[in-house]
Amino acid sequence: MQSFFQKNAGFILLIVGIALIVMSVVMVNNSNVYGEVGATVIDRWDNFGEDIPAYGYRLRYVVDGKTYETTMDDSDYMEIGTKYGLYYDKNNPEITMAVESVNTIYIPVGIGILLIIVGALFTLKRFKPDLLPGWIKFEQ
Fold first, then answer.
1. Residue 116: its H or E element
2. Residue of 40, 38, 72, 78 lying closest to 56 (CA atoms)
3. In which region does residue 86 sit, left (phi positive, over 0), alpha (psi from -120 to 50) or beta (all else)?
4. 31, 64, 88, 94: least buried by Cβ within 10 Å?
5. The pTM is what?
6. Average pLDDT, stretch 79-105?
């Protein structure tokens, strides 16, 4: 006898895949809340942990003529004076995040698409196995 999750794996994968894509679309739609600015490293210190090199940085950036400062940790070593990309909240420029953290939006979209495809195949296997292409084999 199959468990609930085994019988409904296709539906579960479809729902999770759709949720990941919807979450990504919402994040992209909210991206107009953030502006991009180039910050300059003005101070650096060592934050060595358990054999992992890490550095703390103080960054200075200007938004609408007003100067702001923020701190961040990074494993990459940067010299004082290095330019670094930040996103800032347009409603409150003191709130920032690294550009790299926003650019990872494509990962959940790709995973969501993959889960939808696999979920659709499992659902077809359960309800309409004759619709599956001949090259797709499921072991019983």
1. helix 106-127
2. 72
3. beta
4. 64
5. 0.53
6. 80
